[in-house]
Amino acid sequence: MAEAHQAVAFQFTVTPEGIDLQLSHQALSEIYLSGVRSWKKRVIRLKNNVITGVYPASPSSWLFVVIAILATMYTRSDPSMGLIAKIQEHLPVSQSMSSQCQAVLSAVLFSTMLWLLLIFTMRLCLKQLLSYHRWMFEQHGKMSNTTKVWVVSSGAHLSGRKPLLYSYQGSLPNLPVPVVKDTVKRYLESVRPLMDDTQYERTTKLAEEFESSLGNRLQWYLKLKSLWAANYVSDWWEEYVYLRGRSPIMVNSNYYGMDFLFVTPTPIQSARAGNSIHSFFLYRRKLNKEEIKPVSLPCCSYQFERMFHTCRIPGERTDTVQHWQDSDYIVVYHKGRYFRLRVYQAGRLLSPREIEFQIQRILDDPAAPSKGEAHLGALTAGDRIPWAKARTKFFSTGLNKRSLDCIEKAAFFVTLDDDEQGMMGDDPAASLDNYAKNLLHGKCYDRWFDKSFSVVFYKNGKCGINAEHSWADAPVLAHVWEYALATDSFQLGYNTEGHCKGEVDSSLPKPQKLNWEITPECEEQISQSLDVAQKLADDIDFHVFSFQEFGKGKVKKCRVSPDAFIQMCLQLAYFREQNNFCLTYEASMTRLFREGRTETVRSCSNESSAFVRAFEGGEVNVCRRLLRAASEKHQLLYRMAMTGGGIDRHLFCLYVVSKYLGVESPFLKEVADDGYGVSYSLIGDNMINFHISCKHSCPQTDAHKFGSQIKKALHDIINLLSGAQPEPKKPEAGRPEVKKDQ
């Protein structure tokens, strides 16, 4: 109860002598400092809005324009061509103001209007420059004259002023709506390797009927939407692909990020948490000040807005994403208990050593979980409708509501795991698989899967991150994750004993344990959600391996795109397993456009299938030519997807419109999106990490065997590019469809 008393600013009791009022000066001080901090953020936000709003100009340029106009007036010239005099005639000013003051005021108003017109013109020019993407399709070293002019012009607009995170938002072009005819043509081309002549002929007829009739009608609605919406795809994508899904988001939607594989900065769990949590709040401070540097290529940054103090709220029909402006605490889960940990004291961010001290207090706390508390997080791991009903029925009032609000409004969620993870033991490969699988779903109740992200700290000092997908895509979360890892290890560091550096304020109040009143009926729902989540987790077959024989450095020396190289390896590996081809989806970003998210690259093409068939058929003499043609086609598809020429998001939106209109299209029903995940990352020049997932319940899938096929394909294709003669292998049957996780 001591912590509860510290949390209020005053207490009063009624006595025979009257009312005894006791003020808590510490609590009042905290309230005051919290208010000061909040107002500072508002001022910073207002200042940044002004700076961003006038970019690529600067607020100080207004003064330059005013001085220039006033200077010309004193030389008895009129740059306004009579407009200043017109403004002066209609000024609603007092008669006591002298004519000279009226003239100066009129000049200032004219200067302001001229300045705003110049800003509008500059932003319009910048928007046109950012709409030019032809440079992406030109061969390296062969730049057209148009692109040369574009480089000079864009450099003139973008050089000089240092942009803030959101400076480019108002100048980014809108995502264009592709022509139906072009989308249909590219769709037919993408499915040709997957169909026999009869199937392809049927699909072609459906496509032609759609293009000549319903397609144009649906397209009209999309064009209308594109006129007033910042992005004709993103809001529907967030709602229908993510928020309206009623199945568990654990595994199906949430994704994870790993710690360093070969380095553990400290084996002390609380110390690792101290540095990392402090790093996340340092990043948040930079984010609030918009000091996160935009990438060199202007990209949309709107997804960063909901990174912290954001939570997905379940609904019976659709979920919503709720974002709060600020939060000075995190919620920590340990051994079935939830704790509220404030990271600010007297208006300052706690040091890493102080956060470590607070985390250790939680680890040492002997309190038992409240009745029904231990597995409470399973509600966020099961089906969405039961969770929505349970939230309304059991968590909408009283103690449960206050505790749930605390979790949902926290900056982010932290789990202190009692397990040890990472590459360790006698079988590091198996331990790496377990590590990845644990990050994906944990125990199905020790994460709050609805939070924008949860950070997991293991007993041996390893850590990882699990993220909800609706609010942003993986590259955005990767930015803060990489910052936290780098700041933790290379800037903050640890002392010789492995603890965080710095001193501890021993007067810090203890983390506050959240309390719950879980009824037997609620416990039953928690148990049911846990059963659903556990079955889903047990069905996951996961394999992670770090390929270190070579990396993108060697591939680049062969003058092939590393991404295209890996995609061709996946095509070859799959064909050797299945003896046919399948839809293969790779995600690309569309953040060159305002509020852009992702688009699909259909990596299985006529060119890639021709290469694989030739390679497996022993036609080595033509394989290199076919491989380069397939790689170039893949790069073309990737660039088209990035620049608004993809097909899947367009087809998706046409499908959504057809549902709104209540019309059916056999062609749109042909669009498929199934398969299993193969995610990869290129680390430096000599390492490629692969993450492969499938389901045990599918008898044709085996993540480890498929991983072996990928390794062999990597060696065979690099040998082909290097001039070695590979030994072709006859294809075998029995493997599923592959896609890169989106």
From TrEMBL:
Functional pathway: Lipid metabolism; fatty acid beta-oxidation
SUPFAM superfamilies named in the record: CoA-dependent acyltransferases
EC number: 2.3.1.21
Signal peptide: none
Domain named Carnitine O-palmitoyltransferase N-terminal: residues: 1-47
A GO CC term assigned to this protein in UniProt: mitochondrial outer membrane
The Choline/carnitine acyltransferase domain, residue ranges: 175-670
Membrane topology: Multi-pass membrane protein
Transmembrane segments: 50-74, 103-126
Annotated active site: 469 (proton acceptor)
Protein name: carnitine O-palmitoyltransferase
Broad class of where this protein is predominantly found: mitochondrion
Reaction(s) catalysed (UniProt annotation): (R)-carnitine + hexadecanoyl-CoA = O-hexadecanoyl-(R)-carnitine + CoA
Protein family membership: Belongs to the carnitine/choline acetyltransferase family.
Cell location: Mitochondrion outer membrane
Lineage start: Eukaryota, Metazoa, Chordata, Craniata, Vertebrata
GO process annotations (BP): carnitine metabolic process; fatty acid beta-oxidation
Any GO molecular function: carnitine O-palmitoyltransferase activity
Entry keywords, A to Z: Acyltransferase, Fatty acid metabolism, Lipid metabolism, Membrane, Mitochondrion, Transferase, Transmembrane, Transmembrane helix, Transport
Domain of life: Eukaryota
Broad class of enzyme this protein falls into: transferase
